[in-house]
Give the backbone structure.
Amino acid sequence: SSTPYLRVTPSMLKTQTGRKGKDAWMGLNGKVYNITPYAEFHPGGIPELLRGAGKDATKIFGEVHPWVNYDTMLSACLVGLLVDEPEGTE
Ligand code: HEM
């Protein structure tokens, strides 16, 4: 199993959109995944998947397909934990 190690803030996550040569990351229920290696396999297509890139996509994911077990599918793509911004930076 993989252990979450990196603490990812929303401002860090925001830079990981899949553009400008950076991988696309997605926040789901407190964890952050690198969705770039999975993108070409997404049944809903890449543009649809990337709607959730660089952000906490928990809500939109749940609206589209709450039955999909992303945690198992993306276990090798776990980046870390989604945490709040440090105090005084908001
Ligand atoms: C299917 C959107 C994230 C796995 C779909 C479909 C849409 C969609 C619209 C339906 C495609 C169709 O039936 O024609 C989205 C959006 C996402 C997202 C907006 C994020 C914001 C993910 C992630 C995973 C995933 C992170 C897995 C790691 C799947 C699977 C299906 C699917 C397995 C097929 C589900 C089924 O037919 O029962 N997605 N997706 N999606 N997506 Fe996503």
Q: What stands out?
A: The first strand starts at residue 6 and ends at 8.
